[in-house]
Amino acid sequence: MRPPETAYLYDEPGPRTRRRIRIASVVSLVVLAGALALMLRQFASRGQLDADRWSPFLSWPIWEYLLVGLRGTLLAAAVVAVLGGALGVLLALGRLSPLRPLRWLCTAFIEVFRTLPVLLLIYLMLFGLPAYGINLPVLWKLVVPLTVANSAAIAEIVRAGVLSLPRGQTEAGYSLGMRRLQVMRAVVLPQALRAVTPSLVVQLVSLLKDTSLGYVVAFTELLYRAQVLSAYNRLLVQTFLVVTLVYLVVNGSLSALASRLKRRTTKTAAPVAAAVPAQPGAPAVEAPRA
């Protein structure tokens, strides 16, 4: 049986496909290792690996300057995660609503903002709204476009999680006299969110990378600070390699968290086809055979 958090995203690969994936992974690693070795050779030939070019990054003022940008990145990502998550859940529920106008409106919102580039939305916030007298703070010029774009993606993740649950969960709630909203809030939605938690964490990694677009609105985030620092110390390659390492650590930690949550969800997920306890005096109902 496929893990519940991936069963609705793609088909489980077979033995031949898994073998091809392993071969492609090994070939890709060899190519990347060769490209990395060639890059290091070119850097060394041009003096980019000299100790005097890396020694400034051993001083605390440089790291203090970059950490201020990292704090801005994490702040923007946290605000977008909270607002985008709440809006995404509402959009998913609206798209699943039996009310046709609400369903059409939420579907249109999701489909439109899933296809628009985030950079275009940022430009609209930067140049479009001020023309009508609406000039938001710098943080919100970045947060609002990212919230709109990520809420559409989160809505589809949550909706997929809801649709992946067996119908028996909803019918059990109705049998207890619960209304549709009560069933969705107390029965369906908690299980769906738990199943798609790894996918939501992966979306958070993508969101964290999108905050690098904050340089467009001059928001103090990590990449913007790196640009200013490289213009000051004339160490372009070294500065951006250090910033790349910071992004790898942060996003790698989130990716590891997503993998851990995925394994935990797989281990603790109850099988879909479980035996139903029999009532006293009634024959036992067995799960259907695979």
Largest sheet: none
N-C termini distance: 9 Å
- The total count of strands amounts to 0
CATH superfamily: MetI-like
Q: Helical percent range?
A: over 70%
Question: What is the residue-mean pLDDT, rounded to a whole number?
Answer: 84
CATH structural class? Mainly Alpha
What does this structure look like?
- Mean pLDDT is 84; it is low at 1-9 and 270-290.
- This protein has one domain (60-268): Orthogonal Bundle (MetI-like fold), CATH 1.10.3720.
- It has helices spanning 15-45, 51-54, 60-95, 100-115, 118-128, 138-164, 167-175, 180-195, 197-210, 222-233, 236-268.
- It has 290 residues and is mainly alpha-helical.
- Helix 3 packs across helix 6 and helix 6 crosses helix 8 (180-195).
- 72% of the residues lie in helices and 0% in strands.
- The radius of gyration is 24 Å and the shape is globular.
Task: Note the topology.
Layout: H1 15-45, H2 51-54, H3 60-95, H4 100-115, H5 118-128, H6 138-164, H7 167-175, H8 180-195, H9 197-210, H10 222-233, H11 236-268
Helix pairs in contact: 3-4, 3-6, 3-10, 4-6, 5-6, 6-8, 6-9, 7-8, 9-11, 10-11
What does this entry show, briefly?
The protein is built from 11 helices and no strands.
Features:
mainly alpha, MetI-like fold, globular
